[in-house]
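Anyone able to model this chain together with beta-D-glucopyranose?
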Amino acid sequence: MHISLEGKRALVTGGNSGIGAAIAAELAKAGAKVAINYVTDQDTAEKLAAEIRARGRDTITIQADVSHSREVEAMFKQLDERWGGIDILINNAGIDGIHANTWEIDIDDWEKVLNINLGGNFYCARQALRRMVAQNYGVILATSSVHETIAWSGHSAYTTSKAALGMLTKTMAQEAAPYNVRVLALAPGAIKTSINKDVWDNPKGYKDLLEKIPLNRIGDPEEVARMAVVLVSDTASYVTGRTIYVDGGMTDYPDFAHGG
Ligand code: BGC
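re: yes, here you go
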């Protein structure tokens, strides 16, 4: 089976680091034109863009904070000017937020996570759907998390944002289906990126993490990116309104391998 995204116009939010960067690179390898959105650290965005250009693919970098609807609007206008629209949105930008029990969280910290993870997804999807519905084609893929379903103490803003993302995905998929637009989410488990470096980088955290993963290893960003390419390609033309887990079995409740 050959997967080609030749000529497709893609935007990856938070595309300059971690899972987003891996997805941007993989989309370009499959033939897509890729816009790399970033909010800070322009250098990493430009470096990735240079690598993509070196492979003969068209790419741009766009600075925008997805938690601000006006910046999102300007980003999509830039895409219109450059490529006349969009076919694939990877709604990826997100943060874990600070670690604190719910009764200790500052309102500002709560709002920051919700505004980026959920608000940012909504703002970008809203702009993308306007264009995709009008052209009767498109795919939106959000980066959710295993914490769409697994509770995680100290991260209630994060878990809430990801659970909401699952429902936003299903609802938008239902709305957009008559217009040949698919809406999906991808839920990674523990993937080796800077977001969770403090956990996998210390022996105790690493051991604890492995106990939560039946495949007994942390995933690579490329393993998520490959699934993203499949899902946004026509290979997955009959898949919509679902969250697909790429988690080494984390949501398979490994504690039930014994006892129960
Ligand atoms: C979080 C990571 C965490 C993983 C597994 C992800 O959604 O961003 O920090 O390691 O879930 O718990």
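The first strand starts at residue 9 and ends at 12.
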